[in-house]
Amino acid sequence: MTAQPAAPDVFHLYDTTLRDGAQQEGLRLTVSDKLKIARVLDDLGVGFIEGGWPGANPSDTAFFAAAAAGELELRHAKLTAFGATRRVGARAADDPLTRALVDAQTEVICLVAKSHDEHVFRALKTTLDENLAMVADTVRFLTGEGRRVFVDVEHFFDGYRANPAYALEVVRAAAEAGAEVVVLCDTNGGMLPAWMGEVVSAASDIGVDLGVHCHNDTGCAVANTLAAVDAGVMHVQGTINGHGERTGNADLITVAANLRLKYGWPVLSDEHLARATSVSHAVAAITHVAPNARQPYVGQSAFAHKAGLHASAIKVDANLYQHTDPRLVGNDMRMLVSDMAGRANIQLKGDELGFDLSDRDLAARITDVVKQREMDGYSYESADASFELLLREQTDALDPAFEVQRWRVLTSDEVSEEGDSEATVKVRVGDAVVSRVGEGFGPLNALDHALRSALETEHPDVETFELTDYRVRILETGHGTDAIVRVLIDTTDGERSWTTVGVGTNVVEASWEALHDAYLWGLHTRAA
Ligand SMILES: [Zn+2]
């Protein structure tokens, strides 16, 4: 086996799920989704999170404003604003889009610059010299404002093929103006691994730190990224689950796991790497893009073995049948269908929520319950509140604030001012049994009103509870209207927000379960 290159002193894992990843067909991220994904990325331990393009679209501007207002506290990652070099013929200091980058208040800014001569002529409709001036002026202005500046040179590999001297000239202009890293982008995704080294080496001669940004159009995004690393880049860009337009971007988890486990480079700590599987699943739950079971390292099938011939041999030595230990990435070897990782992960998760699950029998029992629930369609990766309720139930640490005796809801085509649905909820609260009717638009809204009304005398805190998001996913397609549905509900009390999950063949039943958990968790943790 060939020896791997030594790790550079500084190495950047740069995530662009929120910007380039969000270009994926059919993907829509709200500001709240973006904040959630950013927190998950921080848990993975990436160095940089590109949040979007402030000034270019209102939701990205709102995201940076929310982050600056304290809604996003990052422990590891630096939030990065993305933007373009100034307009043709303007001054960077006077360009409103350049200003918007400064206003985003991030320490790091990533600028995109043209490096392919034909794109300068046809897209920018300007001269090669003016493009160089745009790069230099914008980088100088932003570094003058105290920002660390990375420059994405787009279409660099195609540009190098068409006009190598000019493509390199753009890299030099960015470097001389003070860019900390120049990122070579395979924007069209047409490169192959064997072609990467020569181009990266040519840019290396300029003497600036280099990065790489690959798309997966040849199915080689990860391989091209590694080839660029071999040629000396110290900064890699990618997205969680390979999200991105067309065939997607380099999957940052696969890249990071390869660098950590195959190269032995400390790009992520062991603890962070062990969260990779849950991070991948959490992002899938938020983006509503079903996880790819065959995704390297973190896919459900990544370490799945069909029972049979291999079964007994695997028991003797599992390492004979897998390329790495799945626990290192928070995944699990499976002989049967089970979605969530095993006991170690449950213990880790329990720790995180303040539960001592060091007792092996207890942890194994809870793992069995979780596996069973996940087979039934539950997903706890993003529903921490439901998971905590499950742990409390299993450890007899739940003293429920209320118990539901019965519920029902009617929806009709008659729409009044109060809505089209009427719900009745009967609950035991303390010593009293309370029955209330609630009206609303849609069954969930009516149930929410009825439950809130039944609880408010004994638990006035419910007044602060607000449902902020509601997502439904059909799990078993092909069954038509009989399909199993999973509902995720996000709730806030103004200070905290939490997510709960419900599952059923009936969307109302699944919604009710998630709603019930939302109130139970909210009241339990406020009382505690
Ligand atoms: Zn891209």
Automatic annotation (TrEMBL):
Keywords: Amino-acid biosynthesis, Branched-chain amino acid biosynthesis, Isoleucine biosynthesis, Transferase. InterPro entries: 2-isopropylmalate_synth_dimer, AIPM/Hcit_synth_CS, Aldolase_TIM, Citramal_synthase, LeuA/HCS_post-cat, LeuA_allosteric_dom_sf, PYR_CT. One of its GO terms (biological process) is L-leucine biosynthetic process. It is an enzyme of class 2 (transferase). CDD domains: DRE_TIM_LeuA3 (cd07941). Pathway: Amino-acid biosynthesis; L-isoleucine biosynthesis; 2-oxobutanoate from pyruvate: step 1/3. It comes from the Bacteria. It catalyses: pyruvate + acetyl-CoA + H2O = (3R)-citramalate + CoA + H(+). PROSITE patterns: AIPM_HOMOCIT_SYNTH_1, AIPM_HOMOCIT_SYNTH_2, PYR_CT. Its EC number is 2.3.3.21. It holds the Pfam family HCS_D2. One of its GO terms (molecular function) is (R)-citramalate synthase activity. Residues 11-277 form the Pyruvate carboxyltransferase domain. Gene3D superfamilies: 1.10.238.260, 3.30.160.270, Aldolase class I (3.20.20.70). Belongs to the alpha-IPM synthase/homocitrate synthase family. PANTHER family: (R)-CITRAMALATE SYNTHASE (PTHR43538:SF1), ALPHA-IPM SYNTHASE/HOMOCITRATE SYNTHASE (PTHR43538). This is Citramalate synthase.
